[in-house]
């Protein structure tokens, strides 16, 4: 049996961690609640492919566009209402230009959500694009000079974390070095730039524990705690690498949780219920 040198193992581990990090980044993007809903429906032998947005940043209304095959005798309608509200559904006809149907969802404040669907009609036959309404969340514009460094640093944090775990597994001599690199990317990427992005997007720096239950903030906090413990223990004793492996596994689990799950949102029913209670009290007196 050929025994690999440390240098050969290190090269193989770096290749493995890079592939794993790319795969996790793609998984995060495609499984989160902000990734567009896509598919196809068939009405009167006409197949329509679609992609419906689930996130809209910046000012202005959220566009909804559907490409219709040319010469198709189809009409389109947009049905929408605010999410977590007592609103009735609004249905408006979509504008037809060439082979494109288009309409707009009215702009909402940051963290405001709207549920919507597109209805196709041909000869009084109606068909929804999706069975369950799509939920789109509005947010403020996040400048690139904040967003891009955040993405790069979080990618590097996962890369160094995975590499640390493999190094700890073989009790390698660079476990503490990679632990430090993980922290030096996780802290600015997740605990500094992350809240700044949250402030730009939703007007709140922190929505995790103990303020609220935002899962993105909470999972970043949990990962940070484990990595701090791993750093302190190794700082005192380089031979204790178990916490580094545990922290690496924790961050892996964190990345397997879709991004933006249980994120900021406005519950319009709370305000409406409070208003109704006030009116009821005034009428009673």
Topology:
Elements: H1 6-31, E1 37-43, E2 46-52, E3 55-57, E4 62-67, E5 75-82, E6 90-93, E7 95-97, E8 100-105, E9 113-122, E10 125-128, E11 134-139, H2 144-169, H3 175-202, H4 215-236, H5 242-256, H6 268-284
Parallel strand pairs: 3-11
Antiparallel strand pairs: 1-2, 4-8, 5-6, 5-9, 7-8, 9-10, 9-11
Helix pairs in contact: 1-2, 2-3, 2-5, 3-4, 4-5
Describe the structure using short key phrases.
2 domains; 285 residues; Immunoglobulin-like; 6 helices; elongated
Tell me briefly what this model is.
The protein is about 45% helix and about 20% strand.
Helix share of residues? 40-55%
Number of strands: 11
Shape: elongated
pLDDT < 50 runs, ≥5 residues: none
Radius of gyration from the CA trace?
Answer: 24 Å
Total count of helical runs of at least 4 residues: 6
Count of discrete structural domains: 2
Specify the structural class: alpha+beta
Give the termini distance in whole angstroms.
89 Å
Relative strand content: 15-25%
Characterize the structure shown.
The chain is α+β, with helices and mostly antiparallel strands and 285 residues long. The protein has 2 domains: 6-31 and 142-268, no CATH class; 37-139, Immunoglobulin-like. The chain is built from 6 helices and 11 strands. The strands form 3 sheets. Strands 3, 5, 6, 9, 10 and 11 form a 6-stranded mixed sheet that branches. A 3-stranded antiparallel sheet has the order 4-8-7, with no helix packed on it. Strands 1-2 form a two-stranded antiparallel sheet. Strand 9 (113-122) and strand 10 (125-128) form a beta hairpin.
């Amino acid at each position: 049996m050929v025994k690999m040198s440390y240098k050969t193992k290190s090269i193989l581990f770096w290749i493995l961690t890079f592939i794993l990090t790319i795969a996790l980044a793609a998984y995060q993007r495609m499984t989160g609640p902000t990734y567009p809903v896509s598919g196809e429906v068939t009405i009167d032998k006409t197949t329509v492919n679609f992609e419906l947005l689930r996130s809209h940043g910046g000012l202005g209304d959220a566009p909804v566009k559907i490409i219709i095959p040319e010469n198709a005798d189809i009409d389109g309608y947009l049905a929408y209402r605010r999410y977590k509200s007592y609103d009735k559904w609004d249905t408006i006809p979509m504008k037809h230009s060439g082979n494109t149907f288009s309409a707009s969802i009215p702009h909402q404040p940051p963290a405001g959500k709207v549920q919507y669907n597109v209805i196709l009609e041909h000869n009084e036959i109606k068909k929804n694009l999706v069975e369950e309404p799509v939920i789109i969340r509005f947010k403020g514009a996040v400048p690139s000079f904040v967003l891009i460094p955040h993405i790069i640093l979080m990618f590097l944090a996962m890369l160094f974390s995975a590499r640390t775990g493999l190094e700890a597994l073989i009790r390698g001599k660079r476990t503490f070095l990679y632990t430090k690199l993980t922290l030096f990317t996780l802290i600015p990427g997740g605990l500094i730039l992350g809240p700044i992005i949250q402030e730009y997007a939703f007007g709140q720096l922190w929505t995790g524990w103990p303020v609220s239950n935002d899962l993105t903030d909470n999972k970043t906090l949990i990962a940070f705690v484990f990595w701090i413990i791993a750093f302190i223990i190794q700082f005192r004793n380089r031979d204790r690498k178990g916490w580094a492996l545990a922290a690496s596994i924790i961050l892996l689990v964190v990345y397997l949780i879709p991004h933006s799950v249980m994120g900021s949102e406005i519950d319009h029913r709370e305000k409406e219920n409070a208003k109704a209670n006030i009116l009821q009290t005034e009428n009673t007196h």
